[in-house]
Amino acid sequence: METPRKPLRNLHLEVNTPLQVPASPLMKTLGYGTGVNVYFLERSPKPGGQIRSPWAIKRVSQRTRRTNYEHSKIFNERILKEAEILKKLKHPNIVGFRAIAKKENDEVDSLALECCSTSLGSILEERLDNEQGALPAQYIKKMLTDISSALDYLHTDAMLLHGDLKSHNILVKGDFETCKLCDFGVSLPLNKEGKINFKENPDLRYVGTELWCAPEILLDEEEIDSKADIFSLGLIIYETIALIPPHSRKLDDTENEKGDDEEVITESEEENSLDQSDFTLGSMDESRPYGTRPPLPEAFELSEEYNLIMELFYLCTNQDPNSRPSAKVIHNSLTTKS
């Protein structure tokens, strides 16, 4: 990212501008996740006519609120936790916090965020549907440059493990002009050594999505570090090449059954949509080789411009955390000219 020519405005919440959130059915759905939906909020112009940028509104889904009160509470707590984390984070490749609010007599909070064009996961799904092949190398390198910068900041300055890295948690602005990391509801604090000791901190629990988990997570290691995020980043590289989630080749047969339901999901349609909670820890088929480097599709050929990308894929998905590069090393490898 280029250095901004002037200081960035503090956009956390404009003075005397309360967050007014319409009812969920009145907003366009941008996406969905485990127990939550994300909506597009078009804001009215300022009194002088100046256009305001739109916001993304994250709320516990109506389906979850209707069917499982305890889950609704858990997901709302994660939204509140994410708001507290994002208030403290300031990085050009981390989605910006805008506001947090709750309507009177409403049991859930609304988290307002910087609005981006789409997610990397949605882009890859569209390429798969259109049989376009691997994401162009220049886009993968741009994504890796931006996200490794965000991770370096998280791991060394903010002292946080993201804890749920996957393609749908990477937002894309424009034609890969900027990529931003999002969804910090299950992030975990790192100690001064950059580690998490679960025995010493029994209240901490890694929640992330199993398909993208590092082996040390699945083995319930007593202590982990930031390299768990790096393994997940390696699996995102896999996604940009294979266009499917890691370890999910048997799931391909369901793609045609889903049709176009996931393109624009409304509250009524989400009943039949694939919930990402289907892929969370403890819910998956134990016979699958999760926590390993997934094989690329057979007879897969890539041009030389993918060489560095594939090298990073193999390094990030090493079984031994000590053999994986840090986010800073990844960023430097992409930005240092040979």
What is the compact description of this entry?
This protein has 338 residues and is an alpha+beta fold. 30% of the residues lie in helices and 14% in strands.
Q: What structural class do the secondary elements suggest?
A: alpha+beta
* Count of helix runs: 9
Strand order, biggest sheet? 1-2-3-5-4
- Outline the low-pLDDT stretches: 1-17, 251-279
- The gross shape turns out to be globular
Distance between the termini: 19 Å
Measured on Cα atoms, how large is the radius of gyration?
Answer: 20 Å
What fraction of residues sit in β-strands? 5-15%
Relative helix content: 25-40%
**Main pleated sheet:** 5 strands, antiparallel
**What value does the average pLDDT take?**
84
Number of strands: 12
**SSE order, one letter for each helix or strand:** EEEHHEEEHHEEEEEHEHHHH
Structure write-up:
This protein has helices at residues 62-67, 69-88, 120-129, 137-158, 215-218, 227-242, 255-258, 307-316, 327-335, and strands at 28-32, 36-41, 55-60, 97-101, 110-114, 118-119, 160-161, 170-173, 178-181, 188-189, 195-197, 223-225. It is an alpha+beta fold. A hairpin with a 4-residue loop joins β8 and β9 (178-181). 38% of the residues are buried. Mean pLDDT is 84; it is low at 1-17 and 251-279.
Provide tags for this entry:
9 helices, disordered N terminus, alpha+beta, 5-stranded antiparallel β-sheet, 338 residues
Summarize the helices and strands and which ones pair or pack:
Layout: E1 28-32, E2 36-41, E3 55-60, H1 62-67, H2 69-88, E4 97-101, E5 110-114, E6 118-119, H3 120-129, H4 137-158, E7 160-161, E8 170-173, E9 178-181, E10 188-189, E11 195-197, H5 215-218, E12 223-225, H6 227-242, H7 255-258, H8 307-316, H9 327-335
Antiparallel strand pairs: 1-2, 2-3, 3-5, 4-5, 6-8, 7-10, 8-9, 11-12
Helix pairs in contact: 4-9, 6-8
